[in-house]
Amino acid sequence: VDDLLAEGVSGRTVFVRSDLNVPLKDGEVTDDGRIRASLPVLEKLTSAGARVIVAAHLGRPKGQFDPQFSLEPVAHRLSQLTDAPVKGIDSQEPLAGEAAKAAVAELADGDIFMLENIRFDPRETSKEDAERSAFAQELAELTGENGAYVNDAFGAVHRKHASVYDLASRLPAYQGDLVATELEVLQRLTEAPSRPYTVVLGGSKVSDKLAVIENLIPKADALVIGGGMVFTFAKAMGYGIGKSLVEEDKLETVKGFVELAQQHGCRLIFPTDIVMAASFAADAEHEVLPVDELENGKHGDQALGLDIGPESAEAFAAEIAASNTIFWNGPMGVFEMEAFASGTKAVAQALTETGGFSVVGGGDSAAAVRTLGFDESRFGHISTGGGASLEYLEGKELPGITALGA
Ligand code: 3PG
């Protein structure tokens, strides 16, 4: 954003797209990592005298006002974290309507005005170029004469949405500092990772990770698999998995990954033991079983796997310790429940202790390390982007970046 600052922003209205998609519970922000990551750009702009409009999305509302997706709690947290006064629009008003224009007209230099959830307008996410374009035009007009656009929403740059993509061609457009930092780190992972380069993937669904697995097998020295997606691999290898999560339609695909890994000399590392539980509940009875005995425990084929076991956790930690570059995305188990958090904790712990460069990618994994109480500064980098960082690593084009022409 320094280019924009060099041009001078005092008195100008700058539209900043941030990613403030944070977890909420009972109307309170439970992890404000993304809000804090958005502050530097906002502070640079406001202290240089800009009048800032902040736009962001929260969750996936259905293109209309819905109180459970209101950005109100986020605006509240933002106002606690910044010195600048944060004003917000009445949630029922159109996003770029008269009320918004009037509110922008009243901004003083250095003020922040936060729009309601940008996805309350169905045109934000429309597949129709003309609809998104019309919305982007309205948003651009909010900035009046001499306005500018800053995209700092790294977590959303993989979305071809009006405020992420189309708006960049309607106003002088600049890359935010968070986007720049995130891109630098990911480039380091894709272009010349210091070896051994280990990728640790978890999370519940293998279907979310197919492209990234395929793309990383040729690049990484080792691919460590944990989380719910383990069971699709385990079933494909012929193991009984009880009632564990499985994606039947992906069995052939994951078999293909095992072959692909062999071809490229990438070691695929699976858990050797699993915490099998009687049910999906925080207080469920559970036991550790070897991966080839998952249906032979107390609950037979009714048990389900909710975490990697201690032997696997130790092996994964040893892989991480022996690596020079590590990318981690996705929890190893149901870390939200204390009884099934050990695997995720062990991986996070190993990442804080390694001498290598560790990158935590993904909203969930980032939230996990913070809610589990790890010190953020012990990691090489904690990305604010989940889908966005995976798509970058998959080698896909990111519309929000392309639009900036950077
Ligand atoms: C995220 O949480 O990964 C980003 O905010 C993007 O959200 P989306 O997947 O709903 O587009």
TrEMBL record:
One of its GO terms (biological process) is gluconeogenesis. ATP binds at residues 209, 305, 336, 362-365. Gene3D superfamilies: Phosphoglycerate kinase, N-terminal domain. Keywords: ATP-binding, Cytoplasm, Glycolysis, Kinase, Nucleotide-binding, Transferase. GO terms for molecular function: ADP binding; ATP binding; phosphoglycerate kinase activity. The keyword DNA-binding does not apply. Pathway: Carbohydrate degradation; glycolysis; pyruvate from D-glyceraldehyde 3-phosphate: step 2/5. Monomer. Belongs to the phosphoglycerate kinase family. This is Phosphoglycerate kinase. It comes from Nesterenkonia sedimenti.
